[in-house]
Amino acid sequence: MTDDRGAGRRSSTATLAQARDDARGRADTAVEAMPYLPPASSPYAPADVDPSTLVWAETVAGPGYTHMTVARGTRIRLEDVTGDACAHVVVLSALNPGERLNVADTQKIPWQAYLGAGHPLLSGDGRVLATVVADAAGGRHDAFCGVTTLAGNVERYGAGAAHTATAAGRELLLLAAAKEGLTARDIPPSVSFFKGVRVAADGSLEWTGDGGAGATVDLVAEMPLTLLVANAAHPLDPAEGYRTGPLRVHGWAAAASSPSDPWWTATPERTRAYLNTDQHLLARGIR
């Protein structure tokens, strides 16, 4: 008698041909978290978007991560499917990853520390990397706390490595960065969407909750852009356990901001930042 646990049992992948057939047999298998290829095939394509314009369509597990380099003018919609996702986002210039998100300038230049519709995400070079062009999450976002760390998650949950059920946001961003040829030195402090934080009167950070199931945020790439996204629990989430849920991402060909957009002329400092961006791209033949 052959022991079912032993070498006498032949699996469906015991030979190269069987492994090939097994892999091909799974070609149409769908799981909860996956990219949709081609993007136009996404079963969750936004109703207000022509599917033929989609360049990126994916559901990111909670916890999980994704990354993409996109063209100027690409519009990216993030959706919190269940109300439990938290999208920790880093953006870097695809022309020069040394130019990357600067959270301090993102708060300083608009004279506004709280993210919402019309808010530019700036680099340390005074240029706009991306703009939050729509916010259906009630302003429940955060530009103060960044992501969770391995040490912090080990202390709070018992584990924080990227492959665990309580993965730290920093560990996931490291994986996303590596897929784009980047390293730990390329990851600045991130901004977080769908989990709100405000500064209380005494200067402490105050948790304000989430935007609810189905909440969305739209970003537009103001230059060729690399996005790193970690879907992981927020550092200040008061939930007793590790709280996370699926994050949906759709990107499509659209247009970069222009002087006709209200956020372009909202303040002199914003106008200057957008003009700096346009000049930077014009000199490189990018319009």
Concise overview:
By secondary structure, this protein is α+β, with helices and mostly antiparallel strands. Helices cover 17% and strands 27% of the residues. The strands form 3 sheets. The chain has a 6-stranded antiparallel beta sheet with strand order 1-13-3-11-6-5.
Question: Any overview of this molecule?
Answer:
With 287 residues, the chain is an alpha+beta fold. 17% of the residues lie in helices and 27% in strands. The protein has five helices and 13 strands. It has helices spanning 16-25, 103-108, 150-157, 169-179, 268-282; strands at 54-60, 64-70, 74-80, 87-93, 119-122, 128-135, 141-142, 191-193, 195-199, 205-210, 215-221, 225-231, 247-253. The strands form three sheets. Strands 1-13-3-11-6-5 form a six-stranded antiparallel β-sheet. It has a five-stranded antiparallel β-sheet with strand order 2-12-4-8-7, with helices on one face.
Order of helical and strand elements: HEEEEHEEEHHEEEEEEH
Shape: globular
Determine the N-to-C terminus distance: 72 Å
* Share of helix, binned: 10-25%
Total beta strands: 13
Features:
single chain, about 290 residues, alpha+beta, six-stranded antiparallel sheet, five-stranded antiparallel sheet, about 15% helix
Write the layout of secondary structure elements.
Layout: H1 16-25, E1 54-60, E2 64-70, E3 74-80, E4 87-93, H2 103-108, E5 119-122, E6 128-135, E7 141-142, H3 150-157, H4 169-179, E8 191-193, E9 195-199, E10 205-210, E11 215-221, E12 225-231, E13 247-253, H5 268-282
Antiparallel strand pairs: 1-13, 2-12, 3-11, 3-13, 4-8, 4-12, 5-6, 6-11, 7-8, 9-10
